[in-house]
Specification:
single chain; 14-stranded mixed beta sheet; 463 residues; alpha/beta
């Protein structure tokens, strides 16, 4: 019988690519020796080895031009040994920016560019990036918005996915008005240049272009719109009507507004997408295609809930996100009001088509006044949602009383029993329900002694 043998060259390219990708994830020290085995193996490895490049890292020179066709994703990062003051980092990155500026227009297959430093890029780098024809995804910090490159930002074309991330602890609120307007104009120019192709847009609320800037911009194919950080600079929702921006996005499928509370003086300001004094007829507010809405720090006085479209399938309301402590400073007593049935019943009729609902927000900070949730009332309201299959609730369950320092024996499992009881009730009352989760951190309820106020959500699932 003739013997058969196989070697790496006999593997199909798809299998070989998976092997290389696995080795690449374990580090260059595993993959470089393999690439030296033969010329044929190296040719197979090059597209995987240089598909994603992080630079300058520990390199003083950019990659040779023979490797440029393989680069599809490029991250411009700090060098690993640059633990220096900002001005030192900028000066050391100057030569790297110059090299990259010369290379960018000639990297033929570059689709994703990510800029990570928190200091501004050079004018030439912005210009070169705008001249990169294959660029589809652009991820930049707000420090990238160089004011003297304002006109260059109009030259970005063909970008499908744009992410502008706010530099940590940076805010426009304290900046002079002229600088604030220039920063917002930079964002408007990028959006305008990419308006015909932009499908996903994520920007800080502060940098969201004013409606009068967006009036001349059409976004015919945008599907995902995310706002992060602080809300738009004007605390008066009527003077900064974000709803007019959303109204123009006729193919929008996902809207996420993750805006923090802005505290002015001692008062927190919630941003309302559609304030009560807005124009009354908003029947066409949302695209008929919208399927998912996520809102942090919402208010039930927001008229947006009256106009939710029948196409909506997923709704997430995070009433007290990470900036919840601002509410403590204001002495606000409506922090936990959302889980009262009367607060959600007025809006629940507009949620008829929902498949997934999440109500998040309890932080358990006030032991003396933590009300127990009216679970019976909540069930009565939510059983109207006949198509609901996934439900996540942060609620306060009844628990055995306990005082720190007392010798009274406490029943630790009382919250678990309550969750199981109400899971059974939901299952019987909402026939379509497939998955249910209650939020339970180790400081939940009144029976666990001292509790930290802040904790990551811990969801307990019932199928």
């Amino acid at each position: 019988m003739a013997s058969t043998s196989a070697n790496l060259n006999d593997l199909g390219f798809d299998i070989f690519e998976q092997i290389i990708s696995h080795l690449r994830n374990e580090g260059q020290q595993r993959i470089v020796p393999l690439s030296l085995l033969s010329r044929q193996i190296r040719q197979h490895m090059l597209p995987v080895m240089f598909h994603h490049v992080c630079w300058p890292k520990d390199r003083s020179q950019f990659l040779p031009s023979s490797l440029w066709p393989y680069i599809k994703k490029l991250e411009f990062i700090y060098k690993s040994d640059y633990k220096q003051p900002l001005w030192v980092s900028q000066s050391r990155h100057g030569p790297a920016m110059k090299l990259l500026s010369a290379a960018l227009p000639h990297i033929p297959n570059l689709t994703t560019f990510i800029y990570l430093p928190d200091f501004p890029p050079s004018f030439d780098l912005i210009d070169a990036l705008a001249s990169t024809p294959s660029l589809h995804t652009l991820h930049i910090p707000t420090s990238f918005l160089v004011h003297n490159a304002l006109s260059i930002f109009n030259s970005f074309h063909g970008v499908h996915d744009l992410v502008i991330e706010q530099v940590e602890k940076a805010t426009l609120y304290d900046a002079p008005e002229s600088k604030r307007l220039l920063s917002v104009q930079c964002v408007a120019n990028i959006i305008q240049g990419c308006s015909e192709t932009l499908e996903s847009l994520e920007i800080p609320g502060e940098y969201c272009p004013l409606p009068n800037l967006l009036q001349r911009i059409s976004l015919p194919v945008i599907r995902n719109f995310l706002l992060t950080g602080f809300p738009p600079l004007d605390s008066d929702s009527q003077n900064y009507p974000l709803w007019t921006v959303v109204q123009s996005m006729q193919k929008l499928k996902v809207l996420e507004v993750h805006c923090r509370l802005r505290v002015i003086g001692a008062s927190p300001h919630r941003y309302e997408l559609l304030p009560p004094n807005a124009a009354q007829d908003q029947s066409n507010l949302f695209s008929s295609r919208i399927e998912s809405i996520i809102i942090s720090n919402p208010s039930f006085s927001d008229q947006i809930f009256k106009y939710l479209p029948h196409s909506l399938r997923s709704l997430v309301l995070d009433f007290i996100p990470d900036s919840w402590e601002n509410m403590l400073l204001s002495g606000n007593d409506t922090m936990l009001a959302y889980h009262k049935p009367e607060m959600i019943s007025s809006s629940a009729s507009k949620w008829a088509g929902l498949r997934a609902l999440e109500l998040q927000g309890i932080r358990y900070f006030n032991r003396a006044e933590e009300p127990e949730s009216d679970m019976a009332g909540i069930v009565a309201v939510l059983e109207q949602l006949e198509f609901l299959h996934t439900l996540k609730l942060a609620v306060e369950f009844k628990e055995d009383s306990y005082r720190e320092g007392s010798r009274q024996e406490r029943k630790i499992g009382s919250v678990d029993e309550a969750m199981q009881h109400w899971a059974n009730v939901f299952r019987k009352r909402i026939k379509s329900l497939r998955e249910l989760a209650f939020e339970k951190r180790r400081h939940t309820g009144k029976g666990y002694g001292r509790r930290a106020a802040i904790g990551a959500p811990l969801w307990v699932w019932f199928s």
